[in-house]
Predict the 3D structure of the following.
Amino acid sequence: MTYSEFYRHSIDDPASFWAEEAKRIDWQTPFTQVLDDSRPPFARWFVGGTTNLCHNAVDRWLPTQADKPALIFVSTETDEERILTFGELHGEIQRMAAVMQSLGVVRGDRVLIYMPMVPEAVIAMLACARIGAIHSVVFGGFASMSLGSRIEDATPRLVISADGGSRAGKVVPYKPLLDEAIRLSAHKPSAVLMINRGLTPFSSEPGRDHDYAALRAAHLDALVPVVWLESTDTSYILYTSGTTGRPKGVQRDVGGYAVALASSMKHIYCGNPGETYFSTSDIGWVVGHSYIVYGPLIGGMATLMYEGTPIRPDAGILWQLVERFKVTVMFSAPTAIRVLKKHDAHWLSRYDLSSLRSLFLAGEPLDEPTSSWISDGLGKPIIDNYWQTETGWPILTVAHGIDNTPTRLGSPGLPMYGFDVRLLDENTGETLGPNQKGVIAIAQPLPPGCMQTVWGDDERFVKTYFSSIPGHQVYSTFDWGVRDAQGYYFILGRTDDVINVAGHRLGTREIEESINSHPAVAECAVVGVADPLKGQVAIGFAVLRDPAAAASSADRLALEGAVLAVVNQQLGAIARPARVYFVNLLPKTRSGKVLRRSIQAVCEGRDPGDLTTIEDASALNALREALAG
Ligand code: PRX
């Protein structure tokens, strides 16, 4: 079968297509209806079926590979290595599940996981899945305000955390940030479970905080059976940034997600049971959820979990791991490759990479020089993936499990099966043809694996994602794109105020709100500016309440440092702008809207575009002067 026939089947007859794919996972009770789309845009997959993500990821593989590696953990930060077989992982998950139950966690409760890249994080996620608790993993690089707002929104009964993480040899304490986050949140979790790695001392709150090692020891022989969940039950919430300052809780189901991942492992990643999958992402991101934890294990593969950077102890570490653990499928981000590109290319050919079939890259635009450099250096196919936290698996790529569709430099590829991708005119909603720039949209129904709704806010789900294209209730990706005559898509940047720093998705509004909280700042604008290494960096422009506060260059420097420290403390280093400049006014329209696109253009030395609506054109010159120092 050609990919185009496979794709057509998925779009023309989704029910029969996905009924077939659903056979890739175990069901406790068979579903009675493949798709319930009676209440658009909500799509419910495999209605009536019961299953479990932890069962499909772990228990299911016990008869054939209990003694084969399931979770391979390598930390070049702490020089630790641990290999858990499927059998051992099964035991650890039950201990963790029993501990969670002893702390009062029951089906449907939320458990927030704020952890570094250690095996207990994966064990905790799978333990939640096992007993039907809903996990919400928050990236360890976020600080107390980001974390606090997520605690408040998800209202977890339990938070699982650790004393600290480590980044490039520097210990990052987690507990003080967590304590502050809980203080800021109106909701207080009833228990905190601490994994003590012995990296950094921390204080405990008696009655609330518990030590995992002690509780684990009390549950060593725990047998915790899988709880069979409705396919449409919620498996997890993962927060992501959007246009407002308030993060959105992307809510995922159980059965649809399991089927989508099992299917993608086969058709897109071409991974087989018994092999090793290596994703360099973090469990705090969607790539970590889908392709460090659930996807590889559901596919019966070992997953390699790596705590460390791509260049420590040297720029060959990733390839050394590929050789040692015979990795067949690898997943990373263009930023990591651009970091490696600053080092000698000989690192790419030093190790035996014969096991490796393909390297998948996703999360941000893959520029052609980076793509060519890594593909020449490794001598392996490089496959670009375009997708989003909301979709959970690729929207655009090539499915080499089906046929040999060639890749094309600069393009992630073709719409994946199940995704009815359209290019639409943002103003008229009209469908566009080849070589016309438009908004990338997806016609209903979204395939299995995609978000169910915004946690606790159905209305926001419909309003945010399905109401932005006039006259059509279609899902907007908020990305611009163009398609060539052969159907290959090219991504041309976001239509909204989301920026992408080193593959991390950030909302400029969140950063602006944080900068505005500094008492000296009257208002500000943050934009994403092209950067050769990180893809984009955030640059802020702030108007001061009292311009005299930044009169001298020493004043400006001190104030910039103070403003950046606020962002660091509230949101985390990940959201800290590269620079904050002080100006007397921001370029705005006469109706008071900040002209972010024009600011971005000026920062990148481009033409600021149509300025007919600008209130005071001198504002742009002020920006240029500030940038010139
Ligand atoms: O703008 C697109 C960009 O990252 C956004 C989604 O980010 P996130 O929710 O963090 O999910 C990442 C999952 C891989 C998209 O809206 N993006 C993602 N992949 C690509 C990309 N831009 C260009 N090329 C890609 N391959």
